[in-house]
Amino acid sequence: QLVESGGGLVQAGASLRLSCVGSGDYFSSYAIGWYRQAPGKEREFVAGIKWSGRDTYYPDSMNGRFTISKDDAKGMAYLQINHVKPEDTAIYYCAAAYLTTGAGPFDFWGQGTQVTVSS
């Protein structure tokens, strides 16, 4: 089970860190991905990290403002968003897959956390 937190209402230009906690054993064996879905739009891939934590993936469209990380000892994954923009407004989802690269696809999904950016 994956549970996201850290969303909310933030002002444009601020920084935000989303968290994802994984229950169960062997979190260190799971690749983690973050996706987002804005109203009326398709879900899009934001970032991914290999199960080992050694490789990360970001679409070019994310423009270097996103950083994914995982802390296996805590069973946590994070998405740092810097200089948030109104177009970052979306529901952000955490996803996991066993022993994969982190580039997708993912098998397990959280319920999402809403991020709303005001201008």
Structure explained in plain terms:
The protein is globular, with a radius of gyration of 13 Å. With 119 residues, it is an all-beta fold. Strand 4 and strand 5 form a beta hairpin. It has strands at residues 2-5, 8-11, 16-22, 30-37, 44-49, 56-57, 66-71, 76-81, 90-98, 108-109, 113-118. 0% of the residues lie in helices and 50% in strands.
Low-confidence stretches: none
Could you give a short account of the major beta sheet?
7 strands, mixed
Q: Structural class, please? A: mainly beta
Q: What is the percentage of strand-forming residues?
A: over 45%
The end-to-end span amounts to: 34 Å
| Total strand segments | 11
Helix amount: under 10%
List the helices and strands and how they pair.
Blueprint lengths: L1 E4 L2 E4 L4 E7 L7 E8 L6 E6 L6 E2 L8 E6 L4 E6 L8 E9 L9 E2 L3 E6 L1
Parallel strand pairs: 2-11
Antiparallel strand pairs: 1-3, 3-8, 4-5, 4-9, 5-6, 7-8, 9-10, 9-11
Short synopsis of the structure:
By secondary structure, this protein is mainly β. It is about 0% helix and about 50% strand.
Task: Record keyword descriptors for this entry.
single chain; 119 residues; mainly beta; seven-stranded mixed β-sheet; 0% helix
